Structures
1.
Amino acid sequence: MRDKVILGVTLSIVTLLTLVIYGFIDAQRGVTEVETQREDAIVHGKRLYAQYCVQCHGPQGEGCIGPALNREIWRPEIAGEKNANYDEAARDFIFNTISRGRPSNQPGIEMPHWSVNENGPLNDEQIESITAFIQYGDWNRVIEDAASATDLSAELPEYPGFTGKDRVSKVKELLLAKGCLNCHALGKGGGRIGADLTDVGSRRTAEWLRKWIKDPKAMPATQRGPNLWLVGPTATVPAPAGVPANLTPAPTAQVFQMNTTYMPTVPMTEEELNLIVEYLAKARTSTK
C-alpha cells in the first residue's frame, strides 16, 4: 500500500512538472512567434517606408518636408530595453496619421491619405508594417531599399525668370556633378531620397535656399520643413498666373520636431551656389 502511495505521489509530481515545463515552452514559443512576426513586419515596413515616405520624412526619419519620425518617445524599446519615456498613444497616432493623412498650407504639399479606406494605395497590414518599422526599425538601413535615380538624361524644366537652354543646362551639369540629382527629383529626372525640388521655389526663398545648401545641419529646426508656413508677400520674382502671391516662408507657432538632417554639406564655389540658388528659387509649378 505504501509503495502505491509513493508511486501515485511521484506520478503526480512528474505530471505537474511536465505541465509546468510544457507551459513554459509554449509561452516561449508564443513570444518567439510574436517576435518573428514583428521582425517580418519591420522588414516589410522598411521597404514600404523607402517607397512611400522617404522623400517627405527623410532617409533616417529625421524630417524633411514633413516632421521627424525617429523620435525617442515613439520607441517602445531602446537598445533592447524598455523605454521609460515611451508615449503609449504613439502606435495609434502613427497608424491613424498614415491612414488619414494631414493637411498643409504649403503649395502642392500635404500628407496623403494612404489607407485604401481613404482611397489610398495601402491596406491595414501594410500600414501596420510601416508603423512597426517606425517604432522598432533601424533608421540607418532605410537607404538599402531606396530607389535609384532615374531619367538623369532628361532636361531640367525652365521657369519664368530663369530661361535659356544654356543656363538651364549649366545648372543641370552642376547638379549632376555635385550629386544633387542622385537624391532629389527635378522635373522628369532625379532621385527619390530627398525632397522633390520641382516646385521648391513655391515654398522657399533664395535666402533660405542659400543658407540650407551652404550648411544643412546648421539650419535651426524652427526653420525647417513644416515649421515654415507661407505668409506675406513674396520677396522673389512675381508668381506665375494662378499661383498665390503669399509665398514667403515664416515660422509657424507650432514647432514640429526636426532632427539632424541626412543631407551633407556639398562643397561648391560661390558662383556655383549663386546659380543653383537662383534657379531653385524660381522653380514654381504649383497653382494651389
2.
Amino acid sequence: MRENNPLRIKIVSDACADWPDLPSHTLARKIYREHRQLFQTYNTAVCAVRYRRGNLGKRSREKNSMPELIRPNGISGSITWQFPKSCVRPYLPFILDTKRTLILSDIHIPFHDEAALTAAIEFGRSRNPDCILLNGDIVDFFNLSRFDKDPTETSLRNELDTTRQFLGWLRQEFPNARIIFKLGNHDERMGIYVRQKAPELWGVQSLMLPHLITAKMDGQTEVGGIEWIDDQRKITAGKLTIWHGHEVGKGSIAPPVNPARGLFMRTLSCGIMGHLHKGSGHEETTSDGKLVACWSTGCLCGLWPTYARVNKWTHGAAWLELSGTDFSVTPIRILNGKVL
C-alpha cells in the first residue's frame, strides 16, 4: 500500500505520533470514526496505520518517509508492560538563611490583639531584623470555617482588607527586610473553600490568597515583596526546622500536652512551631551528647474567643539568630501587652 492523499497522510501520521502505544486496530477505529469521509472502509484505515508504523512488511519499512513512527512488529493486541510513573510531588523545604528573623505566628486577623502584636513587632524592631516570618494563621477566615459561627461577627471582605492593610503597614515599617508569609491551616481555608464550592475556579490567580491580600484595589497600592510558602512546606534555618504546626499532625501534639515536647516526640529534631497558641520549651540530650531543643510560640490574637472561653493560650513570638547552620532562639513572652 502506498498512500498518496496528503490529508490522510497527515491525519494518520499525527495520530501515530500522538498515540504511539495504542494498538493499530484501536487507533484505526478512532481515525475511521473521526474521518470516515476520507477512508472507504475501516480496513483502509487499518492498512494506513500499519503502513505508517512499518508493519505491512519489509517494503513498508523501507519506503516509509517517517522512520520515527515505525515500531517493531508484535502480536496483534499485545501490550508492552512499562514501569508506571509516580504522581508523587517532591516535598522540598524552604531554606531560610537570613541572620536575624522575627517569627510571628497565629495573628488571626481581624481578631489580632493590638497590644501583643505591637509588643512583638517593637521587640523585633529593636534588634533590626532582616527577615519577618509570618508563620501561619495570619488570616482567620472566620466565615469560611466549617464550624458553627456568628456570620455577623466579621466578613470575608473585612478580613481581606484588614490583612492587606497590615501587610502594607509591615512593608512600610520594614522596607529592607524580607517578609515571608507561610500558610497555616486557617490561611488555607480560602483555597479549600474554592476547591470544594467552585472547583472550576481553582487556579484563577485573582482568587488566590496572595493576590487577594497584596493586589492593588480600592485605591490602595500593591503590597510588594512578599514571599509565599504553601503546600505545608517546612522551613529549614540551619539545624532548626520551623513549622506552623498543622503539618506534623495531631498525634502526639495535643493542647493538654506541652506543645514543644509534642513537637520533639513527633520529629526528634530541633524545631519551633506555633498553631497551638501556647508558649513552651523542651530539650533533651541524646545518647551521643547532642542537644535537641524545641519551642512553641504563643499566639498574637485575642485570648478568649467565643469558641474557647477557657483555654491555656499565651501571647508570644520568637526571635531567631542564625550563624551558618548554628542557631539561637529567644522566646518572646508577652503579658498584658508587654514583653516580659
3.
Amino acid sequence: MAVRVLQVDAGREWRGGQNQVRLLTRELRRHPEVDQLLVTRDTGPLAARARVEGVPVTGVTWDMGLDPRAWWGLVRAGRGWRPDIIHVHESHALSLAVWARRWIRPTPRIVAHRRVDFHIRPHGHWFAADAIVAVSDAVRRVLMADGVDGSRVSVIADGIDPDEVRTAADAPPARRFRAELGVADRAPLAVNVAALVGHKDQATLIRAAAAARALRPDLHWAIAGEGPLRPSLLALVESLGLTDRVHLLGYVTEVDALIRQASVFVMSSREEGLGSVVLHALALGTPVVATAAGGLPELVPAEQLVPVGDAARLAQRVVHMLDRPMRPTLPNRFTAAAMAESVVALYRTLV
C-alpha cells in the first residue's frame, strides 16, 4: 500500500526552496510507494509549476505566514485525504501542520524539511515534528546545538535535474546576458544568484569586486536577485566607483543561461543551508568560489573556499580561478532522483 503524504509549502514566492518542492513532488509522483497531494497557495508560482508537472494540488488562500485560511484548508485536505504523513517545507507550514493535525484522524506523522542553517527557537514547533530532514550536515549540527535529538534528524541533500538545467541553459533563444551588459565573450564574468538579503552578504561580494579591480581590471560582476537590500547595495556600488563593473540584474528567470555564460560562479553567504543554486553551476561545469558558510563546504572543495566576510580573499580566489579554472561535475547524490529515494526511505521508517 502506498504511503499517503500531504506536501505543504506556502508557495507565496519562487526561490530555491520552492523549486526543491517542485522537484521532490515531481519525482514522488512517479514513485509507486507514494500517493501525494500538495497543499499550497492557490495563486502562487509553486502551485502553477507543480500542476504543469502533473502533481495533484489543493490550492488554499495563503496571504501571510500563519494565515488561518491556510490552516483551515490544511485541516479540510487532511480530513478528506487522511494522510499518513504531513511533509512540511518551511516554518510557517510546520506551525500550521502542528495545529491542524489535532483535527485529523487518524493522526498523521509530521516530517519537517529544514533548508536553512538559522538557529531555532527553544520549545518551538521544530521539536513537535516526528522527523526532520536537514539538507546538509551543517544544518543538522545547528539543530542539534539547539536541542533537537539527533536521532530525529536525517540528512538528505537537495537535488536537481541536471538534464533540465542544461536544457534550460542552452534553450534557444537563450538570453544573451553578456551582450546586454556589454561584456565581451572572452572577458571574465563572475556571477552571483541569490536574494538580496543580509545572510547572502552581497556587500562582501561588491567589496571583493573593488579589491579585484587592480588584479583584473576587465573583470565584471553580475548579481541576479531581488530583495530589501537592493538600495544599500546600489549605494555601495556607486560609492566604490564600480557602476561600470558591478551589475545588479534584479530578478532573473533565465538563471541557468546566466550561469552558463559565467566564467566563475560566486557565493558570498554568511549563512547557507546548502546552496542549491551551486548545484546548477556544478551541473553546467562552471567553476565555483564560495565562502565556508553552512553547507557550502559540502559542495565546494576546500581550495575554492574563503572565510566568511573576507572580501580580499574572495577577490584573490576569484582571480585565481579565472587563471586556473577547475571545471566541476555534479555528484549523483545531488540529483532530484536521489533526493526522492532518500525521502521515501524516511517515509518507510515512519509508517
